[in-house]
Amino acid sequence: MDYASRMERLTARKIEQTRAKLDKLGARDEDDYGLVLPPASFKVDLPVRDATGQWSGPRAWAANFRWLMENHPCYIDPDDAIAGRWMFMLSRMRLGYQLSRSNFAFDYSHLEPLQKKYDITTGIGKDAHFAPDYQIGLDLGWGGLLEKVRAARRKHSAPTALSVLPQGRAQGAALADPYAVELLDAEEQAILGVMAWTRRLAAAADDRAMSEDDPGRRANLEEMARVCYKIAEAPPETMREVVQWLAIFNMASRTYNRDGAGGQLDELLRPYYERDKAAGILNDDDAEFYVFCLLLNDPHYYQIGGPSADGHDQTSPLSYIILEAAGKLKASCNLTIRVWDGMDRRLFRRGVEILLANRQGCPRFSGDKALVEGFMHSGYSAELARRRIAVGCNWMSLPGLEYTLNDVVKINIAKVFEVAFAESSSLEELEANYLKHFRAAVDVTARGIDFHLAHQYLNEPELLLNLLSHGPIEKGMDVSHGGATYYNMAIDGAGLAVVADSFGAIEERVVKEKALSFAELKAAVAANFAGEDGARIRALVESAGHYGAGGTAADRWAVRLTEILNAEIAGRTTPDGFKLIPGWFTWADTLRFGKAVGATPNGRLAGEPISHGANPLPGFRKDGALTAMAAAIASVQPGYGNTAPWQLEVDIGLANDADAVEKVMALIEGHFALGGTLVNINVVDAGKILEAHKDPSKYPDLVVRVTGFTAYFNSLSPAFRQLVVKRLIKEAV
Amino acid sequence: MDGLVFDIKRGVTKDGPGLRTSVFLKGCPLRCAWCHNPESQSPLPQRATTGEVCGKQMSVDDVMAEVRRDAVFYKASGGGLTITGGEPLAQPEFAAALAAAAAGEGIHVAIDTSGFAQWKTLEQLLPSVSLWLFDLKCMDAAKHRELTGVDNAQILDNLMRLDAAGARLWIRCPLAPGLNDTDADLAALRGFIAGLRNIEKTEICPYHSLGLEKYAKFGMEPRYSRREGASDEDKARWEALLFPEKASRNI
Known about the structure:
heterodimer, A: 733 residues, alpha/beta, six-stranded mixed β-sheet, 51% helix, B: alpha/beta, TIM Barrel, two-stranded antiparallel ribbon, 10 strands, 37% helix
């Protein structure tokens, strides 16, 4: 059983599974997640649901999760090094679930009018989106975690237990802490569920081994079974055991609530790799295959390279093994290389080479300098800033230390602008009104964050991520409610280019050139640029200088909008005292945000998508210059440790250039030198994408980086595919 | 010092090493049959049928403000400024002032030229230009005149002088099927290039028909209106004739 043919078979099955998901679930503008469909006969029959199909609180979540784990189908592939695939998202099984609006057991209708007015994605009831510290689990194993939980429960059920709310008030002094007890009981149930599933996977591998004729596969299945039996309780000790352990945690955490944060993978695996190599039980091909299987199992976000907490380069032979494994994976993969001054440049170069050769949007790159300086701006040490790594779509997190609501709290500034524009009759007035409404939007967003932090522990505790965080188990407090060490609540602005271009067009055409009056423009926008006059005005505003062109009014407005974002968010806290950190990011929500906003003065029609992240709009310059884009996006970095990613599409023409690797490296490094934080990057064959857009079945293996995540192109909805096509074709050189 | 500029492209990957900003100066004394930038020929601003005006007076400072925007990318990639056209040497003072300004700021300067200018124009650029992208179109004098409207004697003389002066040179051969690509044409090009000492690189610029739309847009008539670009066979043949060493290596 050679690894190359196993990888080939595993990849082919992955493509079949993706097709089956598409047939059954339809197009989804989301991450691939690595989940597979359950057998058709499998019925989910959760034990706890009320009459409206809801449940909440630790006990209910634990019961449902344990049921799922105890009944979860056991997927075994004799070619795989890892047992299991995940199939369900418990957090989406509550009736009426929407991606943009989570079920929440507590009424926040008092906030809703303003949230709707500014089209705010509130984050209320949102889960995960912060990083676990896998090391806790790798050191303890499930058995050790169970003991830790039981010990904490004993402590918290004693009548002297004290717990302290994040606001500093003591609660339940001299009494047992009933919430801690319920939470820790729930944690115990969750662990028992995972242990049961792991043992069932072991048994399934054993069963499968017995019916397997091929001796190589049989040996693999027997080893798979042995590993699962062992790590169901004991901590992992070998490379193969550790990848299985990570996969089990990942799959369990996905099943619980879609959590996809990974960690610093090279450093996590290194001790096991070095030990196995020294013991002569592992070679680099084995290690690469194990990592390949881990990456195939689930597209969790991992970082490699970058500085350690004390500032030395973490690049190791394992960083290369992980990168090569990712290079061999013809599937969705979210690996980030941290680019920094003290780095091993060969790792960076190899990453770009793989990116250009594979054209699957992997790896991507984060900029250490601005991230570290930014997080220090937010009041943290350099050491902590270096430990805050790329483990999400657009986000960094301190593994096991931080609760953030990353990437789930967004203010649609195109909507804020719309409200302000309707009340204004001059550019000065518009700026003042924008400021006023943005402030109000931030205010209601911050109150929403407080509401979430005050109630989420009762709504949906983080039963899986609590286990791998420092604090929640010890304190008997959910990570969303005092359990975490740090609270850095993310608020991202969305729609930057639409608003910058709108302000820019007004400044150029109305104020400077007086080519039309504010009132005329307002009337045309209100009429969605209808009629001949509307079309003329639209052509006029559309041809004004765009954000991204360099030196335009819109460029200056983009910087101004970032100043406003920072002034209202950075260095501020919510009313309850939680720190806020700004970013620019839309995720894959450009369509949804766009639907909420009427026509805008940049010539955008009502309901059209808003701009992506910090990117300029397609057509921002005739030459589509990537350097111009890089410089523009660097100029709008908030600079407090969260990102404003550059979604970069590199045309295949450049990719075929003799010095393509150097040029792409220079683009990335130049962007980081100017203050950039994260580059989500695609190498594009525009022709192939156009063909795939017409007939998605033609290229079932075409993977694109949609935003922070990559996805099979054919799994995206036609409207979303159109958006990707537009971005690619216009922005490519 | 003002010049007539008809475009500034950033993030250019073709006109010299690294990531570059190409500044296009308007006006060209040549009338190459295959020209794909017909709007670059006239030394005056020109209105397209769509209404847009091609060509804008810009000062060296204006242009440098644009050029500076990508300084960080030049540094990271070994790129810089490319002054192109049109024929940049047709605005000799402006080209020299721009090249000197960029070089003065430590920016790598390349100039993309047909070589049709007085030697003193090239000579004054020598201190500030780090790389010459020099077009070599046809060795046969009569054919050169017919295809470009000008004699090639001065061009070849300039090229030899640059070579003798130790200038860093990339030769670019625009080749158009049926115009300047006979076996004899290519053998002559090859022979001439072989006699020069400082040629770092020779590139073929194959004919493409993307310029035809622009003729229509500016109400001009193309002399050579072939719809298809150079074929893969054409390109392979040119490569084999111009770079026989490379071709034999590939075999």
